[in-house]
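Margin note: ligand = flavin-adenine dinucleotide.
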Amino acid sequence: MVRASEEDREAIRESVRRICAEFPDSYWREIDKASAYPQAFVDALTRSGYLAALIPEEYGGAGLGMMEASIILEEINRSPGNGLACHAQMYTMGTLLRHGNESQKRRYLPKIATGELRLQAFAVTEPNAGSETTRLQTSAVRRGDKYIINGQKIFISRAKQSDLMLLLARTTPYDALKNKTEGLSVFLIDMRETGGRLDIKPLEMMFNHHTNILFFEDVEIPVESLIGEEGKGFRYIIDGWNAERILVASEAIGDGRWFVDRAAKYATDRVVFGKPIGANQGVQFPIARSYAHVEAAALMRDTAAGKFDRGEKCGAEANMAKLLSSEAAWEAANACLDAHGGYGFAREYDVERKFRETRLYSTAPINNNLVLAFLGQNVLGMPKSY
Ligand SMILES: Cc1cc2nc3c(=O)[nH]c(=O)nc-3n(C[C@H](O)[C@H](O)[C@H](O)COP(=O)(O)OP(=O)(O)OC[C@H]3O[C@@H](n4cnc5c(N)ncnc54)[C@H](O)[C@@H]3O)c2cc1C
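Resulting structure:
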């Protein structure tokens, strides 16, 4: 990993800001209105190399650390934009990097780094297996030199904007297992080679998020698609959770800072009853309070990312960063909306769009209840609810 100095980090921050400045409020507003994919933005980010921040240099990436990747996503969300359009590549790639064999890494990582291949889709959730991942039913049955996939996945984001998809599927029936965390396997699927047997149907969501329901009907994939050992997939996915939590926390922090900046500016400019509304403590204090909470969450994120980069255990910090930042962003979103009065609901102010977008971080990729359960049970040693 490249050891970045504070100056390097500031340079990354500035450079991401410059890219984002080319995509102003109006760009994101129109994309949202048309439910379109921000392709021009994703292309610019890919060209800059920042999407390949976490891919080691030997595989064509920037070889940066979690702290730098966090800064990149934070700055995207601090702009009018949103990293959700392309963030999955950063952490999904980690499963391939940590558990793939050398030939898989050489085959895919350099092309992912240049953008020639897009790895934006990560398929875990099913209609009957959301928080309880070990219940998933989509099956992968080995037949000769192929696996045959059957089943259904839901909420699989960017499947239509991706070439590759990381899939978690069952290779041993649930009832045949002693240890219920085994029997699941990870596959890297090339969706362009599924012979029309993978049906992708877009879902309409609360905000412009390209998520889908997937139907696998006898989808044949080569055995070489298996990542690591058969049956160990759940452990491989868990290995990636800390990175995912830290990166999602960074997006929430970016949103939080955007809301605080916009709210403070509007509250200073808008005059009602002969004075700026921000002079009233009823308007000022919620903004100031959410600012304090966003900055505190950022410190926890920094701690988590620092530990991650030093190879230290960071489960508690990564989970706390995700919890605190999603709550702080939501608090800032409400303070910003309230400060804007009726204008907060008008599309041209962009507050309502960011408001819809930022609500996701409390729910996905993992619900905050499950984060609290991790802290209560795994960190504090209290009894398990499941
Ligand atoms: C916009 C969006 C994009 C997504 N993208 C992806 C994607 O790309 N890939 C993917 O695989 N998934 C994706 N997801 C799915 C997401 O990860 C799941 O929604 C999430 O894991 C929760 O699962 P669920 O919706 O089935 O909720 P459920 O598991 O049904 O839970 C419902 C509620 O019950 C609570 N709950 C359940 N058990 C407990 C307990 N023991 N203690 C306390 N509370 C509990 C949960 O916290 C939650 O509040 C996406 C979801 C959304 C909304």
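Residues 122-125, 130-131, 155-157, 205, 209, 211, 360, 363-367, 369-370, 373, 385-386 surround flavin-adenine dinucleotide (CB under 6 Å).
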